[in-house]
Fold each of these.
Amino acid sequence: MKKRNQVIVLCIIVIGVLCYFVLRRPLIYDILLSTPSSSPDFSMNIFYSDVTMNSIKGFEVSKDTVRPLKAAFKSYTEGFLASAHYRRILSRINRFRKNHGLLPLHYFHDYYEDDSIIIVSFTGGLEKIYILDKKTLKVSNLQYNDTDNLGDMYVSHIRRVNDRLILLGGEVNAYNAFIYQIDAANLSVKKAIKTATHPSAVQEEHYTIDTSGNAVFISKGTLQVLSYERGESFHIPLPFDPQYVFSNETQTIALSLDDVSMHYALYDHKLSLSHTGELALPSQNALLVDAFLRTTQLFLISYDHANNVYRNYITCYDLFTDKLIYCMGLHKYKDSALLDGSLN
Amino acid sequence: MRLKHFLPLFCILFTLIYFIYSGIVEKQGYYKPLHSQVNLDPILSKSILEESDYKLIFEQTGIARPIVEELKTMPDFKQKVLGFQKNYLSAQIIGSADINFFTKEDVINDKDTNAIPGFELAPYHNGYIFLTKSTYTMSWRHGHAGIVIDAKRGKTLEALSPGTSSMEQDVNKWRYYPTFKMMRLKDVNQAKLDEIASYAYSNLQGIPYDIFADKNQGQAPNATHCSLLVWQAFKSFGFDLDATDGLLVSPANIASSPFLETLQIFGFNPDKDW
């Protein structure tokens, strides 16, 4: 009897291991374009999720390979975070809240991290923003006057500019944005500005904070800029209606996609136009998932629902020559969709 | 029969019954419109529509008169209505996705079994109620409900599943369900609906999910589920949306509420509340 039970247990283990390897399907990819002289070195994390957002899988993508990330991930509104880290952060914040007689919170809206601090934003006003010391995970609130708390918002961008943190969020139930300038040393709000935005600027990829701390929004035929220095809005005309705007350390780019190509306008750190151009999309009717600007290279993650082979593409363009210099085609991955990426 | 024989047999039978029932329930819950496509151009070109025109538009598109009236104020009215018609009458491929071990949701699939949005949402505003029959637990097709809290940025407030708390969701997730119903309070102005939505946003976020949570929790509920959340929002303003007046409330109870009017359906039988 004992021997029979051992055999049964062994069979179950073997079946389990076989099932694991059978069911754990890799992400299949093909390098469609890569020339030794011009293709970029890069490292990017991409995240797949099923429609319920319960089954999330991350991959690290480089020029030549795609490998699965071991960590489990949890989603927040604007991205994905390693589950263990998410739980740790949330636990600290809720302990802080409990000590202040407040009920626990459960779902971040936005997450920011730099060398020294982590900022977690929940939907709401300034009172729902928490700063954690990266080493100790000690939690603090922002310091502000009540009049500076402009209202409930969805924080979408945070950027460190010199000794200030610039925080940008969309007002709840309104076509307005809130921009806060925060002293990075003592976490006190120095300036709070509310500005009306175009109705097309409603999501995270519709606005950005540029290298100088200006808030930039898409608008009809223009980019709307709220100046960091002057606190006033002005418009930069564009030859197209922008759909997306992104910034990196030194530049800002506005994008507009049509059926087969993408129009762009690239600006320097002073928001002076560097140049405009048109780039071929990797397939017809490709939709943008995410984009990253790295000096003169533009990385795109796109989605093609009609392609029988490649569901997503990772492409890189040289903005000096307006040429596609790299393209990776990603096959369909289980029942999941590629939702987000980040350039490492 | 000894216990050591009974238990494995019971587990096997339970598992079999579970999967069989889930398979049966998976096939229910979607109503394919029976009407053939009709040319709506002549009707849509009229300056004044009659009752029979609104009825035909509803049969062909799933959008009710208030939505038609709102669309008429938009420049691409005809194009929009024809778009609704095309989606409403198209055959759908329905797949399912696991929410947790016990609960699944139906989703519209393309031919490659990718979840895709199957229809466009009619114009919606704060305080509108979204309903679907497309979630089920074993043989119980309980459905799901949510309330629009930020129409400008496209957000609903929902209580999703055990282990979560009520939270915002993107409205576009509803387009993936093969069944959808949009409702609102009858004869109530938008300012009141904005107030209800604002109340829900401010007071009903972050409440832990409990399928057995009931209506007797007063103004500060400490547990909720999808339909209770919607009920709690409206009850605070004196509107009891539970058509059955029981201790518990379900999406089907809300769908049957006499205080609500239907604005859009997709995959729902137009002759039934649920």
Note: The first strand of chain B starts at residue 93 and ends at 98.
Amino acid sequence: MNRPIRRVAVVAALMFFALLVNVSINEVVRSPGLAGDSRNRRVRDAEYAQNRGPIMVGNVPIAQSNQQDGRFRYARSYPQARLYAPVTGWYAYDFGAAGIELNYTQQLAGTDSSQAVSRVLDKLTGKTPQGASVHTTIDPRAQQAAWDGLAGRKGAVVAIDYTTGAVLAYVSTPSYDPNTLSSTDLAKATESWKTLNADKNRPLANRASKEIYPPGSTFKLVTAAAALENGMKPDTMVDSPTVMTLPNTTTRLGNDTNCGGARTSLEHALAVSCNTAFANVGLQLGDEKLREQAKLFGFDTDVPTDVPWVNSHFPADPDRPQTALSAIGQYEVAATPLQMAMVAAGIANDGVVMRPYLAQEVRGTDLQVISSHRPTQLNRAMSASNAKLLQQMMVTTVTEGTGQRAQVDGVRVGGKTGTAQSAPNRPPYAWFVAFSDDPKIAIAVFIEDAQIERSEIAGGRLAGPIAKAVIEARR
Amino acid sequence: MSLATQASDSPPVTSTGSVVVYRRRRNVELAMTLLATTLGLGGWLLTGLNLTGEVPANWPWVCGLWAGMAVAAHLVIRWRLPYADPLLLPLVIALNGLGLAMIHRIDQIPSPPRSDAWDQFIWTGLGMALFAGVIIFLRDHRRLQRFPYLMFLAGVGLLMLPLVPGLGVRLGGSRIWIRVAGYSFQPSEVAKILLALAFASYLVAHREVLSLSGFKLGPIQIPRARDLMPIGLMWAASLAIMVFQNDLGTSMLFFGLFVLMLYVATERAGWPALAAVLFAVGAWLAVNYTNHVQVRISSWLHPFENYDQNGQVISAQFGFAWGGLTGRGWGLGRPGLTPLAKSDFIAAAIGEELGLVGLMAVIMLYALLVARGLRMALASHDPFSKLLASGLSFVFALQVFAIIGGVTRLLPLTGLTTPFMSQGGSSLIANWVIIALMLVISHHARRPISLGVVTDEPTVTNLADDETRMLTGGGRR
């Protein structure tokens, strides 16, 4: 009977061997994925209760961790909660994170690979590990000016330093209080989450760069850039009938403003935001060239950036009438305020679009810089000479055209107004994009639900002063 | 130390004529047992230290009690079974202690803490008492082979108990429990021992007939119906009851035990081959015609596709990942997040707090236990001992393989206890009795037998004498 017993022993040994191999494979192959799973409460609780580093604007924290008693040893607080909500985002137990809290979560928690050494040192010296601090590019005065300018209306303001891509103001309204959302009182956080999501004004929506809207006439800047890049000049005359019938249709397109005759120069067309003139320019160029130009500014591109990002959109295959409408920022063209600020920035920066960024530096607890952002070029959208021509056209718009409300004494300011129809029975969107030479800043102001008549001047009247206030705040 | 010299007056000879004298190694057993107690006690102390910052005030009592119980078990062996395998008791003390410590640790999670560890400790004491009883009163396990049918009837009777109205209770979908005076008990654990004895006895009596008579069908020798019938019926009846009670895990253990014994008894490899085919057919039918098994399979292969349904398995996997290589440490993990962490999923709790290293060590403890059991099966002189020892060891292996394999996603999960560790009195008691049986078998296997005369009695029968000799004689030599 010994032979079968020996064989049984081999089988038993194989079973135990299989168990050992399996747990080893689990450890090596499956564990890393399991540790990163968002449903893993062990990891989530440990991370949530961590002593995270602060998020700074200048020398002032806009998010910080405070020690407390109870289930979680540290709680997150946001001193100027609503003003900086789109910048910081939130850090909730049950509802994930957003903004810098999300994009720099590893650095803030101190678990990033760049902090491995200090983590080991902390462990050896018995210190409670603390995460790194994130220093933002936000200028508190510009941020405050933009916030005050919107004055509670639904909308967004994005301002960037066009020479570097640093985001100076990043406001979205109506805002929310990340303190309640990130509360360690989980019932309170849940209630806040439900209330915010039920709110029909959608306060959690990041209108500055996570929502796309029809850019309306501000998109004429892209069309104008494409026209200049394809051989037109500011004084090139284009047809500007009061009313034109779009090719192959019976759709009639009219102007909101007086274009000044049956033919007008490109420069004047931009200054008065002449729809028919730009529709004709769009038809001359064709959708291909418009799309190319839009892409160079960042449309339909997954731009690598730490600013919350969704792709702005130019229609993929419009027919001729749709191309005409797209050229004036209607049909299916849709853009984020950040994207429109980048268009202005590219023009102001002599054709070079810089990659936008929100975090200037990440610093360890000893204030030593762990990583620092180096400005990088995204694209050259147009030649420097054409960019200069377009700058002048925008300046004309502000000095003589629809953008006069944005004039700042002693500063060369260029801009472009826009009013976009969202739906026939809804209030229009008011836009204003602008740049100034000194300070070097590019701005997009967007107002949803503007209680104004549907005209260009009205849009500029509403949004222009906000751009002006931000420029003045930077001086 | 002293033990090699304790050869009997009449040295045994093997078939080749050379003399084999096993060392008794009782002092090694004592040392190892004391070492083994430190595993459980260390876990218990560290849990207190890590959770409250201080060692529990009653530590001298707890340490003294546990070490005392272990030493008492050792003394019983020393008294009655001086030639028994010296490794079994330390292994069991280590596993049981780890289990107790882990149950105590999980007790601390709810507020106020539970006292399940205390109940388990009482059961452990009861198990040890039965262990001592078996060792003291069962002078020769071979007597047990006289009553195969009686054993069988007793086993079936126990299996049927949960079906008695008023006595049986249904827990977690299986009607395998009885409740008496507030304590629930799983009679199938005890029935397991009785049925194993019944199978072994029958097979020993009929193994020649079973392997030689009858006709050949391919590689398989089919015995005559009248030889195969009784055991076939025994097996089918017990299996049917367990399947009827929805206790698939235990019925699979039984299937494995029965096939193994048939194979070892007849030495015909056709039996396990046939069993594998039968198992495959059964599994195929179960997968295609029952919902229950399908759910188990899907939660094994793709647990994350249905998070709510497979929350337990998933939580266990998260626990293993959280534990990593060396574990979070006693009291520092979060095993309470996994449902049934004290019973079915205690391996997950071990993996989380003691890490991959700790879990592997536990698996190795079981592997050693099985290895010692199979060794004694080889060393035994008579077929009944061989059959019983190999059967009981293999069931251990199968059980550990199924439950730890299930928890770690090597296999589909079957609800089995982790021997000596899982919370549950019936399983604990039954396993202590099995270990007592194995010790008796090993004593008989290793005991020197004089040519001709078989002495059932060990040379030393007086506990006091034995003790004296160890202290004085052992130290000098």
Note: Residues 3-148+181-476 of chain B form one domain.
Amino acid sequence: MNYGAADTVVAWIVSLFSGFLLPILLIGTIRKVKARLQNRVGPPIFQALFDLVKLFRKKQTVSSTVSWIFKWNGAINLSVMLLLALSVPWLCYKPVSLGADLFFVLYLLALSRFSTVLAAMDAGSAFGAFGASREVTISTLVEPALVLALASIGILTQSSDLDAIFSFSNAALSNTSGIWLLVGTAVILAGLVELSRMPVDDPTTHLELTMVHEAMILECSGPNLAMLECSQLLRMAILFGLSAQCFLHSIPCVWTMTIVSQGIIHVILMFVIASCVATFESVAVKLQWRKVPEFIAYCLTMSLIAGLIAVGGSLVK
Amino acid sequence: MILNLFEMVVFGASFTAILIAGATHLRVNLALYSVQTLFIGFATAMTAHAHADDMGIYGIACAITILKGLIVPVCLVMAIDKIRIQSDAASIIPAPLAMHLTIVFLGLSYLLVRGLPVPLEFSRGWPGATAAISLVFSGLVLMLTRRIAISQIVGFLIIENGIYLFALTQTHGMPMIVEMGVLLDVLVGVMISGLLVFKIQHSFEHIDVTRLTQLKD
């Protein structure tokens, strides 16, 4: 992807706009669809933005026993997510190429989670500790699935660089819808777990027995909480964007289109995914804690099959 | 090489078999079996197209889709309704583990097929045989690990699908009369086993096959 100077400026403007707007619009879509399915009017679509502004203007309450880990948690999370948003090809266009190795990306995700877990333990409340314990358990289970899914297309493209994987340059991959569909499904299932969404954790509940992510950020307030919410929204946009990229690659006729139409189809796909997630959350119930590994097993199944196909395909070649 | 249309169809069939091994809800199992049979019927139609639009094979594709994809699952759903059992909770190993076991068998069948002499056109023989053998393995896993008799019937049907797919992709197509005989056998077998399940439930008040060791009259 070599742009001219004018193209680079356009790419910067477009990606800044979409990096700012898409996460808020995605969460707005999810909340709106869920509300309509429950016969409610629902919040306005920019409600997440209003909430963030309100939180940023509030005063922060900090316990006297916490250390710097807790106070810097929001900033660490937000900066990691901004770095990810710049380096991961979660949109079709990208202003800079920072080199997004897939292991680098996955462990940046893990780093932000690590910092949240430490902050939750640092606050010293019992809820924070058990939320952290659950979060770590879940992420240990889901990490292999995500690594394997992305690595299996990495095997096909002979590269672990996400830019190379998701560029439309390797025409030999244009006719391999099956593996792209499998990987896209694996990423979206893993994303539901990573984002603490419905079948694993209910993002709207504050019932102490069931919450996972909410328990960890219970002690945060004001700008700290706002930055955490921001990074959670960005994380959602990045993961939905990655799986939408996979689904986009599974449509053979997209490969020959221009980058503008690819980008438009990709954004539409992201909103389709968001609506599907909202519908799924409206009809599904939260799983029992014991059943969560079974849900993750389905995700792992998709990645395992994709990995088998990739290894088998490259052996024959 | 990776997943053109025919390969997607046959591997779609073995993928549904893997999902069946992972799902414990009986109705979901039967719906997935129906989807699998649709895949098999579609593969048959594609083979017919490759054999210069052979009308006999097209007929077999239609018969498979209607008999095995529609009538057999409906019969089994009626049996489920009668015995009022919804899910196969008591499998011997947990369902996700069984699912991962079937994935291992998919890889194993890939390795097995690489040792086979491939008779027909290179492009269809290998993926077809891989999917077929993995279907047989998945059916075996299902029959060995499940306790409820309905699941075992589903396992038997998956094995039958696998054997059929193997024959379809390795030969020039069997005579229509043989295929029809096999289909009729399967249909009658499913009906009889559905009745048997009902009888077992009626006389023992459960359909757990592991507890059927002490038979009295």
Note: The CA atoms of residues 230 and 287 of chain A lie 26 Å apart.
